[in-house]
Amino acid sequence: MNADPGLALADARSLAERFALGSASPREVLEAQLSRVERLDPLLRAWIAVDAPGARSAADAAALRADLGARGSVAGLTVGVKDLFDVRGLATTAGSRAYGESPAGEDAAVVARLRRAGAVLVGKLNTEELAFGVITAPTRNPWRPECIPGGSSGGPAAALAAGMVTLALGTDTGGSIRVPAALCGVVGLKPTFGRVSLRGVMPLSYSYDHAGPMARDVESVRVLFAAIDGPDPDDAGSLPALPEPGPEHRRLAVPWSWFAGEAAPDVLAVFRGALDALEGLGFTLVAVDWPSPDVFMSLQVAIRGPETYLIHAPAIAERKERFGPGLVERILAGRDATAVAYVAAQRERHRLTRSLERAMADSAVDGAVLPTTPVTAPRVGAVDVRLGDGRRVSVRDALLRYTAPFNVTGWPALSLPAGLDGGGLPVGVQLVGRRFEDERLLERARALAAALPAVAYPDPGTGAVGVD
């Protein structure tokens, strides 16, 4: 079958319309994207496993569904999943030689939901080993292959930006959906904690892990979120029901003290353009003085550390030599945390979160807006980066600085491509919503995206922009 390259970068709504009209089929979309996998993945290395035969069978089955072409349906749409999600018949390696010796016997809960809804599962996408970092080696950034895609959902972000899949599933413990979304110029949503089931997803931190949707545009993220959202009685962290949303004030907090003095000048310039667009949409922007990101980062370490050790200690005891360089030491750092310190950190986390929620309510604020990261994609091999104030900090600390706080609070947060820096790399703006109000956050992001310049995705093989 000849592949139509014009289908590879089409969004969910456009594909649904074409399916309904009969001008395209799920199999044609799949073939267009598999063609790009074959051409581009030797350079980008976004995929761990591609199940082309299974995907073709799923695409052909989707073409027979009654809901094919229905607006908001994932039927016939291709999905790649980060290799933390169990997919029946494929190994779950978490990007590590220490795991994945046998294929999964059943799908993760959200993967099963997608199959039932007629989505076309293409395969497993690369992740930082155990999702414990922000680099995602050896995956490269489609905008500039000498740069990293971010992590730990770097494989999904790179595959989306390169037109190798329409939708993707990622996970986010400190920014692992939003950071690669920002660096690769795609959209990534970290939902409210507990809205998306984590059953069948390899954990890194019970308290901070989120699963969420990624795509090239907000509407496609909304479609995927609708398909995976909802209670799971077999997931202890799943929310059984949602409260009614509170009143909407169209007021957004801007924590200027976090980034005004340290974000790169190009990032700030793009961010100010997004603020102008929000004001043009009728939003009022309210400057707030929140506790430093360092406070949240300390709580991340104090809580995530012992949880990560608890999760991976058995594998370290059995096959320590199979973990990547330095990873065992990082995991073992959580071994000596005391129960008193862990409980104290959890109590402080909840106190801080409730304090911020009360402050937002008192100010009639619906959420927040800030840069997703202080810098654009660092080069492969970079150990540290220079912030706008001249300080040099580690790549990890820089990229997680504005995202990790919202894993601590559990609020929904989304990264949206807002423009390019002077070197042509994407800049992400992060929109944050009140707890449980993910749909309002998505609508806010949709409106902002429509007011910003559209992103023309690159062709990594040629360096050209806007192809397909």
The run of helices and strands is HHEHEHEHEHEEHEHHEHHHEEEHHEEH
Distance between the termini: 18 Å
Strand content: 5-15%
Mean pLDDT over all positions:
96
Q: If helices are DSSP runs of H or I spanning 4 or more residues, what is the number of helices?
A: 15
Number of beta strands: 13
Most strands sheet: 11 strands, mixed
Estimated radius of gyration: 21 Å
Structural class: alpha/beta
User: In one word, what is the shape?
Assistant: globular
Instruction: Identify the strand order in the major beta sheet.
Output: 1-3-2-4-6-5-12-13-9-7-8
What is the helix fraction of residues, given as a range?
25-40%
Poorly predicted spans: 463-468
Q: Your description of this structure?
A:
- The protein is α/β, with parallel strands linked by helices and 468 residues long.
- It is 38% helix and 14% strand.
- It contains 15 helices and 13 strands.
- The protein has helices at residues 12-21, 26-44, 52-62, 109-116, 154-161, 178-184, 218-228, 256-259, 265-280, 293-319, 327-332, 339-362, 395-400, 405-409, 438-451; strands at residues 47-50, 78-82, 120-125, 167-172, 187-190, 210-215, 251-254, 284-287, 367-371, 384-386, 392-394, 413-420, 426-433.
- The strands form two sheets. It has an eleven-stranded mixed β-sheet. A two-stranded antiparallel ribbon has the order 10-11.
- Helix 5 (154-161) runs parallel beside helix 6 and helix 7 (218-228) packs antiparallel against helix 15 (438-451).
- The chain is globular and about 55 Å long.
- The two termini are 18 Å apart.
